[in-house]
Amino acid sequence: MVKSVSMWMQKEHPNIDIFVEKDVQNDLSSQNLPFKSISTFDPQILPDFVISLGGDGTLLHISRLFSKKVPPILTFHMGSLGFLNSYDNPDSYPLAINRVLEGNFTMSRRMRLEATIFRNNYPHKNPIKKVFPYLNELVLTRCDSQVLGIQCSVNGKLLTTTYGDGLILATPTGSTAYSMSCGGSMVHPSVDSLLITPIAPTSLSFRPLILPSTSKITLRVDSNNDDATISWDGQSLSRKLTGKDWIEVRKSRHPIHTIDNQDATYDWTKNIKDLLYWNKGLSGRK
Predict the structure, then answer these.
(1) What three-state secondary structure class fits 221?
(2) Interior CA angle at 54 toward 68 and 25, to 5°?
(3) How far apart are CA 111 and CA 190, in angstroms?
(4) What is the torsional sign of CA 127, 130, 134, 139?
(5) Is 56 a catalytic residue?
(6) How far apart are CA 167 and CA 227, in angstroms?
(7) Going by DSSP bridges, is the β-strand pair 217-221/19-21 parallel, antiparallel, or unpaired?
(8) Options 27, 42, 48, 56, the catalytic residue
(9) Euclidean distance between the first and final Cα of the chain, in Å?
(10) 12-53: per-residue pLDDT in tens?
(11) What stretch of H or E contains 96?
């Protein structure tokens, strides 16, 4: 598909430069395709838009490429689920790309969250930290302990201490992923909010929460004897978190904009019905 799109672009729009990641060019080097490779994207020189050919994981990968400002993303479904993709037929790329070049399109704004990890210094901050944005969810889960205790604070005030397998902090975009599998609500991407979803909590009364996007969440392993792993959008740290480490999560200043097929509401509701079988019994599935 990369070959088809690039050759079509060269023929129909020869004045447009096409850039791909270095690994993509290496894989297709023998085919003499009309694009240039780039190893890292300069945040000061962004492309006009990005074409995503793949599944939901491809969009998460693009999010990691641009830690700050992100160009509009045109997504085509070529993966397994493709819930985050606007176009379910990759062969529709000529029409979709022409619409973008003509300026005849709308976009969905998807907020990202930004997490900061502080090491060995609770409750004091120091420069030893790692900052990263994420589009779907951050997951804090137990390692060797049978039950993991997590202190969760909102805007500096203790909300609760939860015990179980872990905790998920999700965006509205991520609400239809791991969070939903653990009982969290589905939230439209345009509704700026932050979801707190427990993973197998020991308390039946701990229901998932939806907080304003202005909230600042702090997570800390409750006991110095417990270890936890942290992952975000499929990425993870090699080092475990202990009771001396803590995490701050807040809304990122740099959201992602995906180009719609029809409009933001239609595309999302169509996907929850067609791909997630929302409110369909077994007889309603094809």
Answers:
(1) strand
(2) 75
(3) 8
(4) negative
(5) yes
(6) 14
(7) unpaired
(8) 56
(9) 28
(10) 888 888 888 777 777 776 677 767 766 666 666 788 999 998
(11) helix 93-102
